[in-house]
Amino acid sequence: MEPTRYGTTRRPHRRRALLAGAVLAASALAAGTVPLTAAQAAEQSPATVGGRPLPYLDPKLPTQQRVKDLLGRMTLEEKIGQMTQAERNAVDADRAQITDLGLGSLLSGGGSTPTPNTPGAWADMVDAYQQRALATRLHIPLLYGVDSVHGHNNLVGATVFPHNIGMGATRDPDLVEEAARITATETRATGPQWVFAPCVCVARDDRWGRTYESFGEDPDLVTRMETAVDGLQGDSRRDLSRPDRVLATVKHYAGDGDTAYGSSTSGSYKLDQGVTITDREHFRTVDLAPYVAAVRKHGVGSIMPSYSSVDWTEDGVGNPVKMSASKELLTDVLKQKIGFDGFLISDWDAINQIPGDYPTQVRTAVNAGLDMFMVPYSAAKFEQALLAEVQAGRVPTARIDDAVRRILRAKFDLGLFEHPYTDRSNAGTIGSAAHRAVARRAVAESQVLLKNDDRTLPLKAGRKIYVAGANADDIGNQAGGWTVTWQGRSGATIPGTTLLQGIRQYAPDAAYSRDASAPTMGYDVGIVVVGETPYAEGVGDVGNGHTLNLSDADRANIDRVCGAIPTCVVLDVAGRPQIVTGELPKADAFVMSWLPGSEGAGVADVLFGKRPFTGKLPVSWPRSEAQEPINIGDRSYDPLFPYGFGLTTRR
After folding, report:
1. pLDDT-derived band at 50, boundaries 50, 70, 90
2. Which residues touch 99 (CB under 8 Å, ≥6 apart)?
3. Segment holding 391, helix H or strand E
4. Which active-site residues does the annotation give?
5. 12 has pLDDT over 70
6. Residue 36 pLDDT exceeds 70
7. Three-state secondary structure call for residue 110
8. 528: closest CA among 493, 562, 486, 484?
């Protein structure tokens, strides 16, 4: 008898029969024929010899032995297929491509969802793709990836947590781990077994459009919050096969968040996908440090290199190297020196940014150390190019074998060969009250109280309240980018509570005026909610249609409400600090609410004293946009609020 991941026992011959049956059933379904029974499959499956499984299909054998056996049976074309990841939309209309190309992985990019966007539809979709993968000669299961960066955020109805910047403000690694565990549970119950999270970049310039994806500007803080990896993966590789765990990806290795303003060559971006101009010592202590911990302490299973480049000052500025082309950083440093034994997944079409023609780009990236390639709409082209490079001797077969060995190990650890289809047993927990309660607590702990004259907060019961501002009652704005769609959008995009709805849980008669045009007479407290509208990646870079300054409408709302109502509280719902130097004196209390996600009621919990204010700034708050970049430890350090600042209140 042997233990299973459910803590029960099952006879080995029964498990093998079920596996063989699943394999042939998948092939039969793909062909439109009637599947064999499990007993028939056990006798006839090419994956068995004399009724016994081939070594790679024997769950009793060590993973290393199973990988070696499978790798030895694979053709070069099959190996290259395992290194290839396509976007689901590229194959959905012709799913036979999954089998024909021998694809090792699919992903859902931001907003790439089934219709309807429900847990069941997600699971059905992933399982249908899996059927096609299992119809290949060796029946190697598919690895499905998704950007679950603050919850299973592509799924409508999932629990949506604060973005990483807010989680960094909590200074609570245990809470970060719990949020990640819930994310893993909700994600895997819908099919994907792999998430492109957490981002462990160190945000050194708040003008960056991905600032909110970082836990903060201090590498020590980012490293403390890497408990997210444990929440996603579990405490060891043995946990990965559980239905509440997924393979994690730390990103974007390395220097992301520390690029020079104006260095990006991607469209109108300013910082994103730019150049980190640095010496090796700064790079080691600031940009590289979180990845060392992710590998050595947390055992992360995959890492995504950045779009950005590194330009070492030691050899003169002006010769940047794309991260995807850097053998020094991907192989020599990450895999050999740091000891990373998982696999590297490229970012979306990242190899296309490497200099040279397409074969050169492919050859350079593979030889640099990339293992799997996110080539959303060019999988066949990639496979053909890599095959030609290997056959010409420009890419060693040993490099191919190393890449595939790493990928297969993850699939074995995830239990995909035994359980290739979605375990839906946790589907009922998606968006559950228990999960949302954790998210609500995370929101409360993330709130940073920056000003509190005369103990304005927490608000006393019985006061007449007037609420103003577009972000007070817009759940899309408070969730930010990477919510249902890549860029996110304003409006009623997901279930949950807006800040206004949360306030009304404590003050049911609170008035609301989006533009503060309604009369203000007779109110004791005015609450003005200002902030940003959704964006993602370099689209949100300051100078690319965005600014750190408050909008004219936000400033006008502050003037109207704070000028008319005796007590005025301003809440800033944004993914990074905004310039409030001129507005701060007008408010009695000022709160940075970050991007709270689906549970806006967590903001009200601290406003009304159910929970205390405990959050601390994960980044330095600039006096003006021109003061960026500003970070703790700078020689001339004079922010409006320093890193780590945050007033506290009692419950």
Report:
1. low
2. 30, 132, 133, 135, 136
3. helix 379-391
4. 347, 537
5. no
6. no
7. coil
8. 562
